[in-house]
């Protein structure tokens, strides 16, 4: 009898949106993006003024920061790619994400690490994130409506994440590509 009163309460709590959900740690995204990696080496990349201008020209938006934290994934001495971690504003809160890049600066995959908004979580859908795969700053197609489809109800999250990925693709093109 007593538990019958708890069911409606439990059901109503289950419908509440989740805030600040961490989906992946850095270690998990490393293994997910580069399953064959035997080592990860971090490096801090500092952009020069000329590189920042190149990034802005390629991405169509400011480089935003001089300093970037990059993780190289290796199998022995062979470079498998780079992982770049970043945050963008969704509507009000930060979205933490990672862009895995191939050695040629093309996008390998995009993963959401932490999502803090009450709405717009559809950007976590694998089908939406797969749109970035294989694209690079030099090939284009990294704009919302110009290669990346928008998401109704997640307009700002999708737009800001797309801009962030485009910025990282430009940085990879300018600084990381051999």
TrEMBL record:
One GO molecular-function entry: FMN binding
Signal sequence interval, chain numbering: 1-20
UniProt domain FMN-binding: residue ranges: 90-172
GO cellular component terms, A-Z: membrane
Chain ranges passing through the membrane: none
Assigned keywords, A-Z: Signal
UniProt-listed InterPro entries: FMN-bd
One Pfam family linked to the record: FMN_bind
Name this polypeptide is given: FMN-binding protein
Organism encoding this protein: Duganella fentianensis
Species classification: Bacteria, Pseudomonadati, Pseudomonadota, Betaproteobacteria, Burkholderiales
